[in-house]
């Protein structure tokens, strides 16, 4: 089964929106995030929100 381009772009946009939402909630609630022994700074989540929203928006715009 092949996914049509419109469905693909919609799915990608939804995934990026979900990623942005999770990072936004992390940043707003101040939840700590550890990757191994490294504490991920809060600014990284804010950056991830902006990047994920940008990528999701562009994926949505590319829908045929």
Helix content: over 70%
Note the gap between the termini. Answer: 19 Å
Oligomer: single chain
- Widest β-sheet, arrangement of strands: 1-2
**Largest sheet: number of strands, sense, barrel closure:** 2 strands, antiparallel
What does this entry look like structurally?
By secondary structure, this protein is mainly alpha-helical. It has helices at residues 5-29, 42-61; strands at 34-35, 38-39. The protein has one domain (5-61). The protein contains 2 helices and 2 strands. The protein has a two-stranded antiparallel sheet with strand order 1-2. A hairpin with a 2-residue loop joins β1 (34-35) and β2 (38-39). α1 packs antiparallel against α2. It is elongated, with a radius of gyration of 14 Å.
Secondary structure layout plus pairing:
Layout: H1 5-29, E1 34-35, E2 38-39, H2 42-61
Antiparallel strand pairs: 1-2
Helix pairs in contact: 1-2
Give a quick set of tags describing it.
mainly alpha; 64 residues; elongated
Summarize the entry for a quick read.
The chain is mainly alpha-helical. It has two helices and two strands.
